[in-house]
Amino acid sequence: MRSRQAARRIADSAGISPGDTVLEVGTGLGALTRELCGRGARIISVERNGRLYGEASASLHCEGLELRRGDGFAVEDGFDVFVSNLPYSQSRRAVEWLVQRDFARGIVTVQKEFAAKLMEADPRRRRAIGVLAGHCFEMRVLFPVARSCFDPPPRVDSVVVELAKRRTIPGGVVRAVNGIFSYRRKTMRGIMKQFGREGGPGRLDDLSGDEIVGVAAEIAR
């Protein structure tokens, strides 16, 4: 992200309070990181790319900021707010990790199409990631981000999404939901048979998202 105005708007949307711990995954060159600083919070910003980490380390100096190099999804620190402008190829991984973590809210920039998958209401079109997100978050699209705000400009439309945490689920349930959707063309009896369990009549599309997570929790036991 190269737009200071867009970065400031994203940071403002995070609702950061003094004393919060903020986790940013994907420091990049620090456009968003700079806007997160100066709000009285502890900022943990993690960058995997060595070159970007080096450039950010040389240019970012603000109180309360901890720059780290590595996998942001391996961070074990607790945090209150999650903020990220990740490569869009990492969006699914980010959501699957966040449903397992205990925090208050997240502000993430994602591809517009991915946001639609998270919030899909039609049972025939929903994906596993949408079921997981809908079970664990209250979600809303806050605003679009113009392609010109990025360098290089992406070929897709981008939006900022707010994730307000409702509940947390373990990794075993995440894997079970993904497993269930890999058999979605089967009946529920056929799906449960794949996991060595007894299933009732009907199909996956007949269940609500919360019911699907309940089935996954039974499988994961």
Task: Describe it.
InterPro entries: KsgA/Erm (IPR001737), rRNA_Ade_methylase_Trfase_N (IPR020598), SAM-dependent_MTases_sf (IPR029063). GO terms for molecular function: RNA binding; rRNA (adenine-N6,N6-)-dimethyltransferase activity. By secondary structure, the chain is an alpha/beta fold. The protein has two domains: 4-168, Vaccinia Virus protein VP39 (Rossmann fold, 3-Layer(aba) Sandwich), CATH 3.40.50; 172-220, no CATH class. It has nine helices and seven strands; from the N terminus they run H-E-H-E-H-E-E-H-E-H-H-E-E-H-H-H. It has helices at residues 4-13, 31-36, 50-59, 91-98, 112-118, 128-136, 171-181, 188-194, 209-220; strands spanning 21-25, 42-47, 65-69, 81-84, 105-111, 137-145, 158-165. Strands 3-2-1-4-5-7-6 form a seven-stranded mixed beta sheet. The model has no long low-confidence stretch (mean pLDDT 96).
Main sheet properties: 7 strands, mixed
- Percent of residues in helical segments? 25-40%
Strand content: 15-25%
Rounded average pLDDT? 96
Uncertain runs: none
CATH topology of the largest domain: Rossmann fold
Structural class based on helices, strands and sheet pairing: alpha/beta
Total domains, how many? Answer: 2
What is the global morphology? elongated
| CATH homologous superfamily heading of the largest domain | Vaccinia Virus protein VP39
N- to C-terminal distance: 42 Å
The name of the CATH architecture of the largest domain is 3-Layer(aba) Sandwich
Strand order of the largest sheet: 3-2-1-4-5-7-6
Over the alpha carbons, how many angstroms does the gyration radius reach? 19 Å
Number of strands: 7
Order of helices and strands: HEHEHEEHEHHEEHHH
| Number of contiguous helices | 9
Give the C-level CATH assignment of the largest domain: Alpha Beta
